[in-house]
Amino acid sequence: EDQVTQSPEALRLQEGESSSLNCSYTVSGLRGLFWYRQDPGKGPEFLFTLYSAGEEKEKERLKATLTKKESFLHITAPKPEDSATYLCAVPFSGGYNKLIFGAGTRLAVHP
Amino acid sequence: GAGVSQSPSNKVTEKGKDVELRCDPISGHTALYWYRQSLGQGLEFLIYFQGNSAPDKSGLPSDRFSAERTGGSVSTLTIQRTQQEDSAVYLCASSSSGTSYGYTFGSGTRLTVV
After folding, report:
1. Mean pLDDT, chain B, integer
2. Chain A residues bordering chain B (beta-carbon distance below 8 Å)
C-alpha cells in the first residue's frame, strides 16, 4: 500500500537552531518526491521536487535530500518566518499525476 | 489569473443540504485536482481532471460527491446531503503537464456542516 509518513508531528526550535524533518515513503517505483510549505489558512506552496537517490535541492535556509526510502528537509539557522507546516508527497504507484501526502510536520521557530 | 482562486473561502451549511465549491485554475494549466484536508490530517486525494480525458474519480469518498470541469477551466465540486464528517478544508490545485513543477494550490474552502 502506498504510504507517506512524516516525523516528527511537531517541532519547536529556537531561532538559529538547525534541525531536520523526515519523510519516509513506500511506493512502487518512485517518480519524484515533493516538498511543500503550508501556512495557516492557506494552501500548500511548492518548494522542491527530487527524483533520484542522492539528489539535493536548496532554497534559502532549506535543503532537501533523497535516499531510496526517505527524504530529509534540513533547516539551517531557522528564523521565525520559517514557522509553517511542511508536507511531503509522492505520486501514487498507479497514477503519475496524483500525489499522496504525508500528514506534515508543524514547525515553530521562536526568537 | 495569477493564482488558483477558490470560492467561497468559508461555507457553513446545515446537515442534509447540498453545497457547491468552485475552483478557477491558473490559465493554461491542463490538470486540475481536488483534495480534502481534515483537521490534523494529511491531504486526501478526491478527483483529478486532465485536459479532455475522463476524470479520475477514484478518491471520491461516496456517491454524494461529484465534480465537473467546464471548458477545460473552472471546476465545481458538489457535495449532496452533507454530513458532519464532510467538514474539512477543500483544496483545489492546478498544474501544467505532469507534476514535475509541482501543483499550485488555492487557499481552499473551509466547509463546516452543523
Report:
1. 92
2. 4, 32, 34, 36, 41-47, 49, 87, 89, 91-92, 95-104
